[in-house]
Amino acid sequence: MAGERYIDHKVLKGFAQSKVNVPAEEAKERRRQVNHLRERLENYIAAHPDFDLVKLRASGSTAKHTAIRRRSGTGSDADVAAYLRTTDTDIDVSTMLTWLRDRCIEVYGATKDEDDFKPSDHAVGITMRSSGLKIDVVPVLYTGEPDDRGYLVTAEGTKVLTSVTLHLQFIQTRKEKAGDGYRELIRLLKAWIRESKEVDPELRCKSFLLELLVAHLWDVGWNGELLQVDEYPAAIEQVLSYIVRTGLKTPIIFTDYYKAEAVNATADPIQVWDPVNPQNNVARGYTEQDRQRLVNHARITLETISMAAYAATKGEALDAWRELFGPTFPGE
User: Which of 68, 164, 81, 88 is nearest to 124 (CA)?
Assistant: First the structure.
């Protein structure tokens, strides 16, 4: 089994805790700031019944407890879904983001500088100067459906059904059965792919895709075994072996919230379907070249782990694992 000789579960868990996981105090501060933002906006909504901002929900990796530490001050720390009600049938996402930015500025009034609010291609980023925390407020079109279902609007104007509540429930259901190792495994895989993208910027593999690969292997196992969420070297090897052996050519469908027949076959090289929306292939837009690049990278990583398992010295094993996680491995 990979990593059994020198780099075992204990070493990887220690690395996750010291270098990958968001520190407890920082996570607490993120939640406090997100709750503060939600309270201010929700109080504003209550005082303005004609306001088109209906409700807010914490979303993304922070809400799912799969977030990893930021590097070099880049990226967002937390996400909030802002459910908007509109009668417009033709949505211009740039106009919607500008409108949402103006509303956020109204809520905060004179307590923040306008430069602290910056729209991106899908969200309004808010920087909290006192803590440096960055929150992305993502607009979701709300049509009154249950379970916080609503529609994300892409930069091209396409509406994509989503549900923050059901996505959180999807991962929580599996975590409750698998234990804490389930989410920490996801965080380790995110750390691996982040390091990989620094070496190869053309590599494509979004975090949500990794989450769904882990969910699939937890549901069905691999090679007749359960996903080894309490033995990280083995679990990482299982995920990589799945990618390599299947070539990511086998469609992945979850039936928590809809039947498999609801999915329409596509010609996309990778097909991993959103567990909330049977019309949304999470890997939509990935090319055949993207698929091959990711599979080849997984193959090289798998070979590196195998080398580490048979390394003659601990130093050689550490060098191999540093190819996965960077020079800070194994942390303190």
Answer: 81
Asked whether the CA dihedral 323, 239, 249, 60 is positive or negative, the reply is negative
Bridge partners for 134 per DSSP: 127
| Residue 289 near residue 269 (C-beta atoms within 8 A) | no
Q: Average pLDDT over the chain, rounded to whole?
A: 88
pLDDT digits (tens, 9 = 90+) for 51-100: 677 888 888 888 898 989 876 545 557 888 988 887 665 667 777 888 88
C-alpha 26/C-alpha 67 separation (Å) is 11
CA 253 and chain centroid, separation: 18
- Name beta bridge partners: 163: 149
Q: Which among 42, 82, 87, 90 is positioned nearest to 59, based on CA atoms?
A: 82
**Calpha distance 236→219 (Å, rounded):** 16
Core vs surface per residue 177-208: b (16+ CB within 10 A) or e: ebeebbbbbbbbbbbbbbbbeeeeeeebbebb
**111 Cβ contact partners less than 8 Å away, ≥ 6 residues apart:** none
Q: Residue 174 is encoded by which pair of tokens? A: 């599996």
Provide the greatest CA pair distance for the chain.
70
What is the rounded CA–CA span in Å between residue 245 and residue 111? Answer: 55
SS3 of residue 22 by DSSP: coil
